[in-house]
């Protein structure tokens, strides 16, 4: 997948977890907890959704590496 496709997929899964977020309002460097206000359960649901979609195991120690769309794209690109 291209970086653009990875970002689109990440945003799609993010919106499934937090439907009040609008895709066009999410910036590359928006922090999923600090800026987008996901709580810990939302983050866990996002990790589960990313695992289901990409088949990538994301250990809790790696959560900071998916904390923004830009970081998540880089993480998913190297993991995929």
Automatic annotation (TrEMBL):
Xref: Pfam families: PP-binding
Domain of life, per lineage: Bacteria
Alphabetic keyword roster: Phosphopantetheine, Phosphoprotein
Carrier domain ranges (all copies): 1-80
Organism field: Oceaniradius stylonematis
A GO MF term: acyl carrier activity
InterPro entries per the UniProt record, alphabetical: ACP, ACP-like_sf, PP-bd_ACP
Protein name: Acyl carrier protein
């Amino acid at each position: 997948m291209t970086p653009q496709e990875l970002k689109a997929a990440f945003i799609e899964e993010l919106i499934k977890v937090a439907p009040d977020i609008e895709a066009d309002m999410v910036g590359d460097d928006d922090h999923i907890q600090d800026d987008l206000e996901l709580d810990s359960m939302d983050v866990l649901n996002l990790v589960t959704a990313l695992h289901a979609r990409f088949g990538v195991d994301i250990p809790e120690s790696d959560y900071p590496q998916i904390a923004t769309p830009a970081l998540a794209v880089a993480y998913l690109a190297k993991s995929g």
